[in-house]
Each structure stands twice: as structure tokens, then as C-alpha cells.
Amino acid sequence: xxxxxxxxxxxxxxxxxxxxxxxxxxxxxxxxxxxxxxxxxxxxxxxxxxxxxxxxxxxxxxxxxxxxxxxxxxxxxxxxxxxxxxxxxxxxxxxxxxxxxxxxxxxxxxxxxxxxxxxxxxxxxxxxxxxxxxxxxxxxxxxxxxxxxxxxxxxxxxxxxxxxxxxxxxxxxxxxxxxxxxxxxxxxxxxxxxxxxxxxxxxxxxxxxxxxxxxxxxxxxxxxxxxxxxxxxxxxxxxxxxxxxxxxxxxxxxxxxxxxxxxxxxxxxxxxxxxxxxxxxxxxxxxxxxxxxxxxxxxxxxxxxxxxxxxxxxxxxxxxxxxxxxxxxxxxxxxxxxxxxxxxxxxxxxxxxxxxxxxxxxxxxxxxxxxxxxxxxxxxxxxxxx
Length: 386
Known about the structure:
This protein is an alpha+beta fold. The protein contains 11 helices and 7 strands.
């Protein structure tokens, strides 16, 4: 892919991460999945090289850069066949929220570990009965003396089994209006009443998915992140990076699949010329490449706006980037499998499992339909149907 719009530092970062990802590659990730393990070796090495915390403040051991750099890391690891999905959650969502809104004590407790990879944090927002409607979140937090008490359920929470804590989106009652407002709480993994059960997924990934039950989980006053009255601002501060990183995840996967298909189309010969000489094979691959490039441009725009402090502009661009990357990823994987024919469904070539994995970028963290709702309402000013 072309990098003419990137700085020399970004190009150097891309090359360095590519080298790391290539040393591990798809075979490593496949073996980790087969063994039911986690990519600890890759995570540790990426952390040691400073890649995991590249977006976090320097004073807490991070790289002092932003989402532009962190998205490069995830994209290139994905393009090498070994993406780290927990990068979306731990440094991007949780690290960003704590860096922007956490107390001094919270920053000192969490950011150095999130930056060097020794600590990880999960993120719980989705609920069984709320789905895309965050206004229906029923996980509540009430004060009890100097403590908070959380009660509720969450679903499709990644990596809870390896995370030291989970950043939970709950709702507290506004004393003035009586209405519930969103707030963020750090819940340690071993907190009494904090229960998890693994969801049996068709998706083949090292990161497991969990349903959580919070049964009268007692937390100290300092478990609340940031200002109790600024919940939505803090929440969206984490969701924009989540969308940017999901775009990076999708673009990386799409690039990996496309590269395998192009390599195959150059060498696979059935008639006189390699199959890549035929436009029925070549043109769909070219279209996939174009769409991945376009998605990356929007991702870069979103990251730039976010890093420049434009949360509103970044919100629109991040949603568009996530939408474009999800579509481009699914199409690239589909075309790659189709290009290989029967070989595309064999374990030897490792593309078949991506058919399911590629859907993640369309579904999570928000469906493409909800993004279309966002754009139609926020960008075009059309009325809501809900």
C-alpha cells in the first residue's frame, strides 16, 4: 500500500511492525488458537518494543503519540496475519479514557502497566437486552456510604479471563433530575460478585468472549473514572478510538487475505497464463485493493482529527472509517477465498477461518446499520425513526 501521505516516522514504524509481525505470522496465531492459548509472546515483544503503549503519555511510560500510531501497529500486525485484538480494548479504549479523565492515582496505577503490556484491561458496555441501544443499559451503580455497588449484566466482553480489570459502563442516578446517566467504573477481575462465563463462539480467535454478571459488586469510591457528571463525554472519548482501531483491524485482515490471493493468482496456472491474467480474477482483486486503500484514508483522517482534539469531527470520521473498513475487509476476504477456489477452504492456506473473523469488523463494536443511522442523523440531518 502507498505511504506517501505519511511522515517518515510513520513509515519507519510501519516497517518495524511489519518485521515483527512477519516473524510471528499467521502460523503462530493459528497455533495459539488451536491450543486455546493467548498470543503472550507476541504481546510481550510488541510491548517491549514500545508498540502497545505508543498512544499513551510519556510520563507514564507510553510513547506520547496517538491513535495514528497505534492504528499503524494493529494494521501491520493484522496484515502479517497476527493481529492483537486486545489492542483495541486495553491501550485504545481503556488507556485513552484513563489518560484523559482518570485521577492522578488511577493514571499511576494503570497507565504504566497498560503501556508496557504487564497489565491489560477489558471493556464492558454491551448488554443482553440493550444491544445497540446504549440508553437501555440496565447495569446500575448506587452509592453506599463511601462505596459504589454495581449490579447488572454484560455480554460479548473480550479477554476478561486475562484482563486485570474491566472498565464497566454503568448508570448512576442524577440527584437533581432523577434520570440515569452513564458512568465508567474499574472493576478488578477478582472482585467479589464479579462473575464471568465464556460464550461458545464459532469465531476462531485467541481472545475469548464472555458474559458478565455483577451481583452487588462493591467498589471503593476511587473506582469511578473521571467526573460523575461527564459520563457521555468520557464514554465517547473511548468509543472513537475503538472505531479507529476496529478499522485498523479490518484493513489489516483484508490486506492479509488480499496478499495471499494475489500471490496465488500470480502462480496458479490452469491454462496458458496464470489465473491472475484473467480479468474475472484480476478486477475483483483490484477493487478489493482500492476499497482497502479508501478505508485506510478515512481511518487516517479519523486518527488525525482525534489526535488533534476534535472529538466531534473524529466521531463522524471514525464511524465512516469503521464502516468502510468492515465492508472492504469482508469483500477482500470473500474474494481471496473465491480466488483460491477449493484451496481457499483448506487449512493449508488459512483463509477459510477469516470468513467468520471478517464479519467482526461489520458487527462490532457497532453494526453498520447503526453507523448509517449516525451518518444520516448527524451528518445529513435526517430525522430519527427511533
